[in-house]
Write a structure and sequence with these properties.
This protein is α+β, with helices and mostly antiparallel strands. The chain is 31% helix and 32% strand. Strands 4, 6, 10, 11, 12, 21 and 22 form a seven-stranded antiparallel β-sheet that branches. Helix 3 packs across helix 4 (71-79).
């Protein structure tokens, strides 16, 4: 007797996805609506640090103050691009992924929606009583065509067959949804166009000084990749006066009320001069280039005479605000040409000065009601022949202190402080104010505004309109001429209120005048 043994083999293992399969999977994941929503949330989240930390493109002086107050923390924040959020690699990566995701999910949905618009409503089911909404009534001498006409008056798309009507409406929901996402895509394109063909820069301007829109005149200049120096609009202006108004008394004492910079503007070389009152929410617009008022401060004026009687420095010095409540400010004066030794000064500017109980001096109001300047003087090598230095910082490590102490009596306007050891003198000659400006040209600004408006418009029907279907079957007339009419309906999207609308539709199909009026009111409310 012969025995045979069946050898069982393992089933073949499924092949891996492979490179093409993994790419297809990644593309489907990236272009899904869920991923697009997640990226949209991350895009909004990535913008938050731009409103928390000062940005170099908007307020470089505040960034400098941050480095002065917290040098260790500022160093790490700078490594993470948190002072340049909107030009950081991680922000750009989020922007590009969101753009690709929206494009990848909107285009297929738009094609599907167009096919849906061309497709006729399906035929009416045989048993309408199984639908979520159902009603029946008897009428005399009605036909399917007449029922279809009544539904069309309620803005339904209809299809008729032998004894039945199929009607549908609510396509505006998906149209609004697509408009919203297309508008978001257009918004991203507008931002990208603005980044390529636009530019922005920052300028600090002291009263009495002027500005011409050239690259060399900017304190910080950030051009787009397609921008050259010839792309700048050739306008200029002069800051004649700056006025800041504050609450003088009460609980809100010191709170700012208004800021106004009076400019003399020349729109093009050789053009007439025109006045312009620049305010925070009223930028200067010259052929699409906008100038925004974003900050202000004090710029006290000093005259430094060295030990040999020569004027080593005479100008206004912009001060950084150390206390926003009282506008106590700090600034630096460097006189590298002073003889026999270079001179450096740390200045503490007090807009409204009063003596404190401990013998020091403080400011109690942001307006310049009693301006004084406390001067701390140093002599020695300023180290200006080495690496570039910040104009807001004085390295005192290798300097000899000449005048120190917060209890030193501050200088009033016109007063002079003589330095010890025959080093010279410094005179407080007056007070001016400075403003910081952002000048920007963004060709994508108007398209971005239009896209944002369209996104809001598209969001309204996407959230309020419901997709619904109504079916009607008209029976055969009996001996008395009465016909049984069955009506069924269902909502294809979630949302309350379809039962009430279905009731008004049935009333309208009955044909009563009151029903027609109620139907029109119900349709109006449903939309």
């Amino acid at each position: 007797m012969t025995f045979t043994r069946e050898v069982q083999t393992d089933p073949p293992r499924p092949a891996g996805l492979g490179p093409v399969g993994w790419l297809r999977w990644a593309w489907r994941l990236l272009t899904s609506m869920r991923t697009a929503l997640i990226l949209l949330f991350l895009f909004a989240l990535a913008s938050v640090p731009g409103s928390i930390y000062p940005q170099r493109s908007i307020s470089p002086e505040k960034v400098a103050q941050y480095f002065k107050d917290s040098p260790g923390l500022a160093k790490w924040l700078d490594r993470l691009w948190l002072f340049d959020v909107f030009t950081s690699p991680w922000f750009a990566a989020t922007y590009l992924l969101l753009f690709i995701s929206l494009a990848g999910c909107v285009i297929p949905r738009a094609n599907a929606h167009l096919r849906e618009l061309r497709r006729k409503p399906p035929a009416a089911p045989r048993n309408l009583s199984r639908l979520p909404e159902h009603a029946s009534f008897t009428a005399t001498g009605v036909t399917a065509e007449e029922m279809a006409a009544r539904l069309r008056r309620q803005r339904f798309r209809t299809v008729t067959g032998p004894g039945w009507v199929s009607a549908e409406k609510g396509y505006l929901r998906e149209s609004g949804n697509l408009l919203f996402h297309v508008a978001l895509l257009a918004l991203l394109i507008a931002v990208g166009v603005g980044g390529l063909y636009g530019y922005r820069g920052n300028v600090l301007l002291i009263e009495g000084n002027g500005f011409a829109n050239t690259v060399a005149a900017y304190d910080r200049y950030i051009p787009g990749q397609k921008v050259s120096s010839d792309s700048l609009e050739p306008f200029s202006f002069t800051l004649q006066d700056f006025q800041a108004t504050y609450v003088a008394g009460g609980e809100r004492r010191g709170q700012a009320l208004d800021f106004s910079a009076k400019l003399k503007v020349v729109d093009h070389p050789g053009g007439p001069e025109r006045p312009y009152d620049l305010k925070v929410n009223e930028p200067l617009d010259v052929n699409g280039t906008q100038t925004y008022l974003i900050g202000h401060g004090y710029a006290p004026a000093f005259k430094v005479v060295d030990g040999k009687g020569q004027v080593a420095f005479e100008s206004s010095v912009p001060c950084l605000t150390a206390d926003q409540a009282t506008y106590t400010s700090e600034c630096v004066i460097k006189a590298p040409d002073a003889q026999p030794s270079q001179l450096g000064f740390l200045v503490r500017f007090l807009p409204t000065t009063v003596p404190a109980q401990d013998g020091s001096y403080v400011s109690v109001f942001p307006g310049a009601a009693n301006p004084t300047a406390q001067v701390f003087a140093f002599s020695g090598d300023l180290g200006m022949k080495g690496a570039p230095q910040s104009v807001y910082r004085l390295e005192t490590k290798n300097l000899k202190p000449l005048v120190m102490g917060f209890k030193t009596k501050p200088l009033a306007v016109g007063e002079t402080l003589k330095l010890p050891d025959g080093a010279g003198s410094i005179q407080f000659t007056g007070v001016r104010e400075w403003i910081s400006l952002q000048i920007a040209y963004d060709p994508g600004r108007v398209p971005a505004l239009i896209a944002a408006a369209l996104a809001v418009i598209g969001l309204i029907p996407a959230l309020t309109v419901r997709r619904r279907r109504v079916f009607v079957r008209v029976g055969e007339a009996g001996d008395d001429g009465a016909t049984t009419v069955e009506v069924g309906g269902l909502a294809r999207t979630e949302g309350a209120g379809f039962a009430e609308e279905f009731a008004t539709i049935v009333t309208a199909l009955r044909g009563s005048e009151a029903g027609e009026a109620a139907s029109r009111e119900g349709v109006k409310n449903a939309h």
